[in-house]
Structures are given as C-alpha cells and as structure tokens.
Write a structure and sequence with these properties.
There is one protein chain. The protein is of the alpha/beta class and 136 residues long. The protein is built from 4 helices and 5 strands.
C-alpha cells in the first residue's frame, strides 16, 4: 500500500506545466483570484512569471524549471540576475519568490536569504522555494 507522505514526486514534464502549478498554488496561498501568468515566451518580463497580490501588496514568482537528469542546478549568478530584473518591475514588488524544480541547496538558500535581508529595507523580500517544499 502506498503512503502519500513517503512518495517522491517527479518534476513536471515541462517548464510551462511547472509555471501553471505555481500559479495555481500561489493564487491559493495569496487568496488572489486575479493572479496572472505574466507575459509570454519572448516578452521582457523583468524576472516575473506570475504576478498577483499578497494581502493587497504586489507580489511575484519567477519559475525556474531544472532537469533532474542530467541534473541542472539553480546558480547564484542566475538568482542575482533575476533579482536585478525584478527590481525593474512596475509596480514595485513587496514579495518576490524564486520557485524551482532544482534540489534544495543550502548555499543557494543562504544566498537568497542574505540578498533578501539586504534589499528588504528598500525593495522587497525575496525567497526561494524548491519543488519538494511545494509538494508538501
């Protein structure tokens, strides 16, 4: 008999499906039925794939799908580039989430936490959420 608490979920089959799952999830978390998948492929999105309101404040999610075989990782330069782009988003964001299918990595999490602490006073709080945390 299968125990759902002990099952390992596979990453979604495409980046588009992952973005769709994230949009559904954050729409529920933020209680925002007006949340949108922002733009489309090829358009300049300023680091934003999903845009909505979290308790009335402007919030966004950047979805980073990564392969599980061969494994690809989310990198610090990639994170820094996305955060710099998100700072250009209008209206200014209060919350910025990097959602990824990549494995949890303490160095990446620590880096995002440090960046969030440094930009919080003047911009927004940033955080990283990996697929295992999304599926809990």
């Amino acid at each position: 008999m299968s125990d759902a608490n002990n099952e390992q979920l596979r990453p979604p089959p495409s980046w588009d499906k992952f973005e769709e799952i994230c949009a559904d999830l954050f729409s529920r978390i933020w209680k925002d039925n007006q949340l949108v998948r922002y733009g489309r492929a090829g358009q300049r999105q300023h680091g934003v794939d999903i845009y909505g309101k979290d308790d009335g404040a402007d919030a966004a999610v950047q979805c980073k799908g990564k392969r599980d075989w061969p494994t690809t990782k989310l990198t610090i330069p990639e994170i820094d580039a996305e955060i710099q782009e998100a700072k250009k988003f209008e209206p200014p964001l209060t919350t910025y989430i990097l959602a990824t299918t990549a494995d949890n990595d303490i160095y990446i999490t620590d880096h995002v936490n440090a960046v969030s602490a440094s930009v919080r006073a003047g911009c927004f709080a940033a955080c990283k959420v990996s697929a295992p945390a999304l599926s809990r």
